[in-house]
Amino acid sequence: MKSNVFLKPPHLPLVAPSVLAADFGRIAEEVIDAERCGADLLHIDVMDGHFVPNLTMGPDMVQAISKATTLMQDVHLMVTDPQDFVKPFLDAGAGSLTFHIEAPGLKEFGPLELIERIHDGGATAGIAINPETPAEAVASVISQVDLILIMSVHPGFTGQTFIAEVLEKVRWLRNKLLPRQRLAIDGGISIRTGHDALEAGCDVLVAGASVFRASNRAGTIANLRGDYPR
Ligand code: DX5
Ligand code: ZN
What we know:
This protein has eight helices and eight strands. By secondary structure, it is α/β, with parallel strands linked by helices. The mean pLDDT is 97. D-xylitol-5-phosphate binds next to strand 2, strand 8 and helix 7.
């Protein structure tokens, strides 16, 4: 299994390019290039057309990406029934699974049980929260997760505008997490909004369009991480 950068980060913050913004016609080349340009992991947006109004990729894509790169994949499950997809994505090579606290399927299959199932499969577990969901919604699972993913756009599409109000949740959650737990932000992350998110307390930046549509991907990733003066 690939080394898990959430458990043993080589540095912080981590930059996680979102493959949703890559050229799907050249996916292997795109992820190889992201790795060469300094990505710390890959963010995989899975959408089922129910939980969000878009359809994207499934376990076969994760398996193909696993073969092309050594980067860990964090699978962001924007699906109604995340419990149905734990095994398929773990079998495909995902190193981390992140599901939404708002997922309707959790009414029957509680979040703690799902986290346990992900951990039993050898992966880290993350919980995602939508812009309109209060941070308190994840209070009961905070101690069990490896990652909290704050959505800074309404999930569904790449290239949307950052919702700055969610930084309040970042500040609230930062003080409640242990050093081993990561706090990620996803949606509309550019050098500028990424900087604001880091200042608020995030240590993982998910970035789609700003990385994959950049003319200088390596420079953009380094800038997101704060390696160069802005
Ligand atoms: C949105 C997805 C994001 C998205 C980010 O529903 O969860 O991961 O791909 O893309 P950008 O960075 O372009 O907003
Ligand atoms: Zn995402």
